[in-house]
Amino acid sequence: MLVSSAAPALAAHPHGAAHRKIDRGLTAALQAGGATQQVIITVKDEHRAEIRAALEKHGDRIKFEHPLVGALTVELHSADVAELAEHPWIDALSLDADVSAGAALTTTSRLASTTPLTQTPTVPMPTLRQTLGLPTVATSSTLTGSSGVGVAIIDSGIAPSSDFSGRITGFYDFTRGGVPTTPFDDYGHGTHIAGLIGSSGAASNYEFQGIAPEVRLIGLKVLDGKGRGKTSDVIKAIEYVVANKAHLNVQIINLSLGHPILAPAKDDPLVQAVEKATAAGLIVVASAGNYGRQSGGAPGYTGITSPGNAP
Q1: Spatial distance between the Cα atoms of 304 and 115, rounded to a whole number of angstroms
Q2: 302 lies in a domain?
Q3: Domains of the chain: total
């Protein structure tokens, strides 16, 4: 038995079979085969240390501990998933699912940290500010974020430019464990989002200005150069912001990324991280996903992605 407890023994489900504690992503991964799976295990808080010790003794590799959501990210033997699902100390087992920005950037549109951001479309189009009924350039009567508002952008990074001059006040690469580093963006999506939120407009001669052109920006890179990342890295980034919100002077988190809904919100560790961040007093903005309609135009089933389904 992997983990013992005072509770009566329970019959294990067959390997790979559906179980209410095992999310759809992990169920599919088990059915596809593989000796191990990267799993986020949500554990009752008072027993997390015991579960961790038992897993380590069994040879499973603990990648992360997530105190914010009471979970462990583990490289787990596939054969042990069913047993853990029956254990009373385990609340949920979730695949450490791939997250993505949901964008379709081409190679030529990706932004390196040195790429100048001076090109503008040849065909005039409404800007975001105009769409929202705001003046093209902020005035003294519009909100700009000048009062010290800090926005944590959890995405693919932020490429420095004159649009963000002096306002990227922190940058952490969670694709490498959360190391502080010089800001960069090897995919481009995070820079796009940062521009919508807080571009000064300087790089486009003020034709394209963000909603709040004087906010401070804190970049937390969780997506790689292909726009993909892991749920556990996003949770680690959220945990970092929550733990350091005063030091970073952050009031808002932006998450323009996600993964398909694989479990009810109460069992989804990414949703729970968002809920905990909100409870900590942060405003969390999450995208709904880009899957609201099927190719034929019909509404898409479960079109909203996690964590956009957070209550």
Answers
A1: 33
A2: no
A3: 2
